[in-house]
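ok new one. same drill as before - structure tokens go in, u give me an amino acid for every spot. 212 of them this time. try not to just spam alanines like last time pls lmao
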């Protein structure tokens, strides 16, 4: 057994255990951290397969950006997880059956495709360059038009998401960052002077003047 094969089994075992911990641990923060470990172990597996670009993209995009966003959202939202856990326990047997069936189907499909389709040589290795260099050369030369179209679609999606999110809703409380920045110290507290008056109950309880 070679050293890369030992590393593959080790990374695969860590990925499987971390993925199971994502759906079984009680704390959402711990689940998010286990998902980070899952992504990182998967990136290590891709490095063994000479897919450097996919490994770097997984760590930078998902671990460095998406999971940080997930952690902030989970820590800011005070969720009641007891009803969610009850539903998870009730649906666990059905979920296990569906997961086993899907795993068997995927393994069968992989086995059939492996027997029918001959293994093609790695184009990056055939060209004598790394996976990242070959992918960049192919992306910005042969596939430049689909790449630009995808970038345009993502830009339109980002611009369209802003007006959809910032539309005014009736009955909701919103913040105005412009007013918050322009506020001054003297505007934060307002002192109101009021004349001292006795409550009506105390006034009626006092005896009138001139009575014995």
């Amino acid at each position: 057994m070679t050293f890369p094969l030992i590393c593959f089994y080790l990374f695969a075992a860590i990925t499987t255990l971390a993925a199971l911990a994502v759906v079984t641990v009680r704390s959402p923060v711990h689940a998010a951290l286990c998902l980070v470990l899952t992504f990182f172990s998967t990136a290590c597996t891709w490095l063994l397969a000479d897919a450097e670009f996919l490994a770097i993209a997984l760590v930078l995009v998902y671990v460095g950006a998406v999971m940080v966003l997930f952690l902030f959202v989970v820590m800011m939202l005070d969720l009641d997880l007891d009803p969610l856990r009850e539903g998870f326990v009730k649906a666990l047997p059905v979920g296990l059956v569906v997961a086993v069936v899907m795993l068997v189907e995927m393994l069968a499909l992989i086995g059939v495709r492996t027997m029918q389709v001959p293994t093609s040589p790695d184009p990056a290795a055939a060209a004598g360059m790394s996976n990242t260099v070959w992918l960049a050369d192919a992306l910005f030369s042969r596939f430049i038009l689909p790449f630009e179209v995808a970038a345009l679609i993502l830009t339109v999606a980002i611009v369209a998401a802003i007006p959809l999110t910032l539309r005014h809703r009736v009955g909701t409380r919103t913040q105005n960052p412009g007013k918050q920045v322009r506020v001054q110290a003297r505007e934060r507290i307002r002192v109101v002077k009021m004349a001292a008056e006795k409550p009506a109950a105390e006034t009626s309880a006092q005896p009138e003047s001139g009575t014995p």
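The first helix runs from residue 3 to 24. and btw DSSP finds nine helices and no strands in the chain.
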